[in-house]
Amino acid sequence: MRALRLVLAMALALLPLRAAGEEVVAGLSQTRVSITTWFAGSEIFIYGAVKRAAPPPEGPPLDVVVAVMGPLTPVTVRRKSRELGVWVNGPGLHIDAAPSFYAVATTRPFRDVLSWTDDLRHRVGLDQVIRLIDAPLWSEGSRDDYLDAVVRLRRAQGAYYEHIGGVTVREETLFETRIELPAQLVEGDYTARIFLTRGGAVIDHFETSIAVRKVGIEYWVDTMAREQSAIYGTLSIVVALIAGWAASAAFRVIFP
Amino acid sequence: MNIYLPIAEVSVNVFLLLALGGGVGILSGLFGVGGGFLITPLLIFIGIPPAVAVATGTNQVAAASFSGVLTHWRRRTVDLKMGGVLLAGGLVGSAIGVQIFAWLRRLGHVEIFVSLCYVVFLGVVGGLMLAESIQARRRTRRGTVRRVRRHNWVHGLPLKMRFRQSNLYISAIPPFMVGLLVGVLAAVMGVGGGFIMVPAMIYILGMATSVVVGTSLFQILFVAAFTTLMHAILNQTVDALLAIVLIVGGVIGAQVGARLGPRLRAEELRIALSLLVLVVCLKLGFDLVRPPAELFSLAGAE
């Protein structure tokens, strides 16, 4: 009974604080991306508004950070070393789970809108992606070099990127951004997170997911390759033989 | 125009793939090599994950070699008996090669071994072939008759068989051993082995160049089909869409190659093949010695 009263008192104490605070309400232009044969990338439009009971507080301006993360996939990082005068790949660091895609869009320079501590807490920045990577203990050389390399190489591929100034905020209330999904997209559930910040501190955040799915031929081939691999393999060879025969026959007719 | 590949999970230009398949197909029909030693690195270069490149490359090689074999079959330039003996040796060899590969992997030196294998074999094969074919060309220019049949240790072995199409009466042991050796190398290096098989047939077995190409393709067809099936079942890395686009280019290229072949002189064909092999060798060798710009590389899960 006493415990209940305590909880009630705490809830009542928190209530005005919550009401005075600002909340994010957001939406996505699409929560489903279909990968077809001619898929050439996609663009997701993320928009929202700030819900508040009182007028916007004085002080630092409102900032918005949007982070979209792809499904976690395993990856092996290798480092070349010189052996007997030639450059060969050394032993690989196997990483169980690294985001296949990561995009961050902000209103202003990253460190201005999100403090170190809040970045660490919510794991938002591209530097923090590395912390999401579930890498095993590693004895060969420095592990951080390998993890840095993942981010650097993925950045070069365009799979990880930062878009400073990519989010526009209007009248401290409405915001919008566009996140480009590249053509090299991995199937799975993508998460979109939206953070409302003031003076580097997170006020509120919202999370939703985007389902990226192969459809049509893409879906059919992928499913068959995994679930009926023997038939799939045989079919691949049959197709190869038919194509080989067809070309031979066609050429015999055209150029006797 | 880009196409999204379902297994590779990348999007690539269709025309680039068609050209790639076509180019390698021409070489396949012309020289009797599967082209695996070219198509796999090229696919990796355009961004296909290595595991998918290796497996799908073999599927394209199967199609191109079948296309070439049919043309050679009609021309009666396929020695079935010789092909069968080579294939038997090849199957035994690839079983041994897979074991060697696993053993090297345990030792942890598989990368360096495979890289050096490529450079050494391509270099030796290309160099010898170039030297020999230049000599042969000089001889034909001067008008001296080349000794058709060289009698060496190969002809003193037991188990003699008559290979009618190849116009040979030799022991079955050398072809079997050639097949075995190529099978071992093919499994270790992840290639069909045509570029080693073709010179071995010409120089060790003394077969006529005209029969060599068709017979080599016949052997490669089986090896490639078998490898494709194994990759599809064990690794699920055969990308059907990628394969189809490559195959369309490949089979047409193979036809062009097979028709171009008889119009070219045998020595010149051999000089061209040896130059191609040497160029690939130099490129690989250069990549091994040159300090890389980026030390790190990413690969999918193993």
SSE map:
The complex is a heterodimer of chains A (256) and B (302).
Chain A: H1 2-20, E1 22-28, E2 32-35, E3 42-52, E4 62-69, E5 72-83, E6 86-89, E7 93-99, E8 102-106, H2 110-113, H3 116-122, H4 126-132, H5 143-157, E9 160-164, E10 168-170, E11 174-181, E12 188-198, E13 201-214, H6 217-227, H7 229-254
Parallel strand pairs in A: 2-13, 8-9
Antiparallel strand pairs in A: 1-3, 3-11, 4-8, 4-12, 5-6, 5-7, 10-11, 12-13
Chain B: E1 2-5, E2 10-13, H1 14-31, H2 36-45, H3 50-74, H4 80-107, H5 110-142, E3 160-163, E4 168-171, H6 173-189, H7 194-203, H8 209-235, H9 240-260, H10 266-289, E5 296-299
Antiparallel strand pairs in B: 1-2, 3-4
Helix pairs in contact in B: 1-3, 1-9, 2-3, 3-8, 3-9, 4-6, 4-8, 5-10, 6-7, 7-8
Care to describe what's here?
The complex is a heterodimer of chains A (256) and B (302). Chain A is extended. In chain A, a hairpin with a 3-residue loop joins strand 10 (168-170) and strand 11 (174-181). Chain A is built from seven helices and 13 strands. Chain A is α+β, with helices and mostly antiparallel strands. In chain B, the strands form two sheets. Chain B has a two-stranded antiparallel sheet with strand order 1-2. In chain B, strands 3-4 form a two-stranded antiparallel sheet. Chains A and B meet through strand 5, strand 6, helix 5, helix 6 and helix 7 of A and strand 1, helix 3, helix 5, helix 8 and helix 9 of B.
